[in-house]
Amino acid sequence: MTRQGTRAVATLMRMISRRNLLGGGAALLAASRASATELAEKLDVPASEGPVALTRYTANEAGKRPAVIVLHGSRGFELRLLAYQRYADALTAVGIDVFLARYYGPADAEALQKLGTSEKREAYEDGRYGVWADRVSSTVTAILARPESSGRLGLLGFSLGGFVAAATAARDERIAALAVLYGGMPEKIASHVKRMPPLLELHGDADRNVPLANGVALIKLAKSVGAEADQITYPGKPHGFDFSDRDSATGDAIAHVVGFFKTRLVAA
Length: 268
Fold this sequence. Notes:
Number of domains: 1
Structural class: alpha/beta
Strand content: 15-25%
Strand order of the largest sheet: 1-2-4-3-5-6-7-8
Number of strands: 8
CATH class: Alpha Beta
Helix content: 40-55%
Radius of gyration: 17 Å
CATH superfamily: Alpha/Beta hydrolase fold, catalytic domain
């Protein structure tokens, strides 16, 4: 990470302090819910297999602005919407518009619910990464065409969404920055990767859903094609550690992600 990025992270860590997350957690969550709700706008983007539903959070700054598209885990946004909104609030606070993208096609959520084993789910997902990446790229096209777009755009993916984000970034050169939380690169796509944007990957080393090795392999792959890539590992933390309302690691993860995108998209 650059010196400028390190300073940005330090500043954000002061804003999202342990005291706020532990001692004043209720106030932080209430403020997050209010600000995100006030700024939310529902949009639909044409794509293969039907429109992609977006929720847009707008930075309170005039002029051209960069954007980050957020990609959900396997259960969508609604189960832990507030956790995603915390990232949206922190990113809009530094001048970045945020779009929560529901990249599933009409049949995906129901199909995934019916698959009883992890092996069946993984097989289904392997057959869908290309379609999901295409749907995300359609979203990229629509956002970059908006009058307020600065032309700089990043992807932020969580778990399954991290794999989709990595797959999209590997094939769409318009992606200027990629942040992945406890994800990786789909195996069938990895051998075909020729380029990657600057990458930040965050992972708990006690993750049993998506083992740390997936994140390590993603970093290695990105570096092998000449991309700048950094990984931050959280000792003892499980899958989805940053969704906790009462863990200081949540603020740390948000600060690193926001500092990364601020450096790559705003200051670039």
